[in-house]
Write a structure and sequence with these properties.
Length: 478
Amino acid sequence: MNSASNRFLSRRGFLAATTGLAISLPMRPARASAVDERSLKAAPSRARLAGPDRPPASAWAYNDSVPGPVLRLRQGQPVRITVENGLAEDTTVHWHGIRLPNAMDGVPGLTQPPIAPGAGFTYEFTPPDAGTFWYHPHADSLVQLGRGLAGALIVEEAEPVAFDRDVIWLMQDWRLAADGQIAGGFGSAMDAAMSGRVGNLVTINGMVPADQTVRAGERIRLRLANAALARMMALRFEGHRPIVLAIDGQPCKPHEPEDGRLVLGPAMRVDIALDMQGTPGGRYRVIDDFYDGLAYTLTTLAYDKAPSLRARPLDAPPALPRNPLPEPDLHNAVRQEIVLQGGMMGGGKLAGVGGMMGMAMPGVMGSAAWAINGMSMTGDGHAGMAPQFTLRRGATCRLTLRNETAWWHPMHVHGFSLSVLSRNGSPVPHRQWQDTVLLAPKDTVECAFVADNPGDWMLHCHVADHQMAGLMTVFRVT
């Protein structure tokens, strides 16, 4: 840390990331006029990703922790976060899902100069929304995320919400070599043009998932965050009935997930209420079965033998308090369409990089593998990126996302949250708002938002290989 700067308070507000359900974090009283000072340093580190009995892997970390420290902020309280770059390459930090000023969004070239090695940058914003968010680099995203740079960011409600425990699972997916080190080969053509860099080990809060100790009768607010580069997840809680309370930080109508599966693409978050109604001493698996034939046990809910915390089950969980999102005016909306093209088996036209791909492997030698509306933007962002469309400030945009490819894409919009209206012509229930909308192959999703935040904003796939290989665009609010 740069000790010469009085903005660096190296330990203040630091909360170490932990595995499982063994942590309960108390609410802090709000200090409406105070500025919450934090600091982060991105630097090389070591992490025991493969477990305590294996040698630590070389990784990149925030504050020497993989994942980085859990930042718990307060809704409506200004925050000042100073980031120091201890890497040998440029970096930035993107505060994923936070509706903040454009200059604080962390896209190199587009919203800020990149943070050079040895330099720092101070981000200042006031989070308007309570909920579950996260932070990560937006420079050399594929490598920096893949080597460990990510952390949870929780904005607590202005008034505490009653749960017995409030728990975060930040899930990361790693491609490890036989020696337990993070494998090289970032940006391969096969990954770029297909499903992305899916790994061979999933961790919860930086560790191989151990049993999660729980007590019968307790109600937990479990915040699930998928910080993987490319792995989709579909979680089932054996013997339990999770209730979805929020998606991507935005409260929704409480409901059970379809078919009991909680589906999270990369960058997505889901808050659930989990009532522990299992048998004392019992064990219940949490299974990820997104990929056909590749289901595995992510972790196990292990009940202690104590009697139930309550004599009878709790009533259904109440809805979380709404955030101050502007309501779209659908009758006077401006219509825009984003069409996703390319990839293997895509047959798409990449007009921005010379037309049809023909028989060549897309993504070879850093070439584009994907396009939006026929144009490819590769990398992480840069100065002078031409906007796909421009919106007048205050206008409602009705945005259609159309996936013409054979692959799944979690599409992330910066600076806004989208009201999800319909999927393949069917209305989406439960009043869902999302900043990352997962599109299955051939899906069409209609969303809407109010363009109340001026600036140039990125919209891209959060499968990092896909973004880097062209599945990215910019829109402008004037």
